TrEMBL record:
<dbReference type="InterPro" id="IPR026592">
    <property type="entry name" value="BamE"/>
</dbReference>
<feature type="domain" description="Outer membrane protein assembly factor BamE">
    <location>
        <begin position="35"/>
        <end position="104"/>
    </location>
</feature>
<keyword id="KW-0472">Membrane</keyword>
<dbReference type="GO" id="GO:0043165">
    <property type="term" value="P:Gram-negative-bacterium-type cell outer membrane assembly"/>
</dbReference>
<keyword id="KW-0564">Palmitate</keyword>
<dbReference type="GO" id="GO:0030674">
    <property type="term" value="F:protein-macromolecule adaptor activity"/>
</dbReference>
<dbReference type="InterPro" id="IPR037873">
    <property type="entry name" value="BamE-like"/>
</dbReference>
<protein>
    <recommendedName>
        <fullName>Outer membrane protein assembly factor BamE</fullName>
    </recommendedName>
</protein>
<keyword id="KW-0732">Signal</keyword>
<keyword id="KW-0998">Cell outer membrane</keyword>
<comment type="subunit">
    <text>Part of the Bam complex, which is composed of the outer membrane protein BamA, and four lipoproteins BamB, BamC, BamD and BamE.</text>
</comment>
<comment type="similarity">
    <text>Belongs to the BamE family.</text>
</comment>
<dbReference type="GO" id="GO:1990063">
    <property type="term" value="C:Bam protein complex"/>
</dbReference>
<dbReference type="GO" id="GO:0051205">
    <property type="term" value="P:protein insertion into membrane"/>
</dbReference>
<dbReference type="Pfam" id="PF04355">
    <property type="entry name" value="BamE"/>
</dbReference>
<feature type="signal peptide">
    <location>
        <begin position="1"/>
        <end position="23"/>
    </location>
</feature>
<comment type="function">
    <text>Part of the outer membrane protein assembly complex, which is involved in assembly and insertion of beta-barrel proteins into the outer membrane.</text>
</comment>
Length: 135
C-alpha cells in the first residue's frame, strides 16, 4: 500500500513539474514586430552626403536618436515569431553638425533579406507560369 502511494505521488509530481514546459509549446504566441521595418531597397537608397530631411523622407522617422546631442539616428526592428528566438536588425546613421550623413552602420546585413525577397518573387512567378500553363 505504501509503495503504491509513493509511486502515485512521484508520478503526479513528475507530471506537474513537466506540465508547464510541455504546455508552453502548445500555447499560441502571436508574432510581434516592433520598430522600423526596412527593406534592402530602402537601405540601398541611403548614401553618404544626404541631409537629415532626405533620410527621414526615405526611411521615415528613426526609432531612437542619441540623447547626448550627437547626431545619431537608430532604426531598430525587432521580430519575435511565435516560439522562435527574437531577431533584431539595427541601422545606425551618423550625421555631422550641419545635418549631413557621414556614416552608415548596418548591424545585420540586409543582403540575406534581399536574397529571400528575390526567392519569394521567383516562387510567385513560377506559380503564375504554372497556372498559365494549366489553362
Amino acid at each position: 500500500m505504501r509503495y503504491k502511494l509513493l509511486t502515485a505521488a512521484a508520478l503526479s509530481f513528475a507530471l506537474m513539474s513537466t506540465g508547464c514546459s510541455m504546455m508552453e509549446r502548445l500555447v499560441y504566441h502571436p508574432d510581434i514586430n516592433q520598430g522600423n521595418y526596412l527593406t534592402a531597397k530602402d537601405v540601398a537608397k541611403i548614401k553618404k552626403g544626404m541631409t537629415q530631411q532626405q533620410v527621414a523622407y526615405t526611411l521615415g522617422t528613426p526609432m531612437m536618436t542619441d540623447p547626448f546631442g550627437s547626431q545619431t539616428w537608430f532604426y531598430v526592428f525587432r521580430q519575435e515569431l511565435g516560439h522562435d528566438p527574437v531577431k533584431q536588425e539595427t541601422l545606425t546613421l551618423t550625421f555631422d553638425r550641419t545635418g549631413i550623413l557621414t556614416d552608415i552602420k548596418n548591424e545585420k546585413n540586409l543582403e540575406a533579406q534581399q536574397a529571400m525577397e528575390a526567392n519569394e518573387i521567383k516562387a510567385s512567378e513560377a506559380k503564375t507560369s504554372e497556372t498559365k500553363a494549366a489553362e
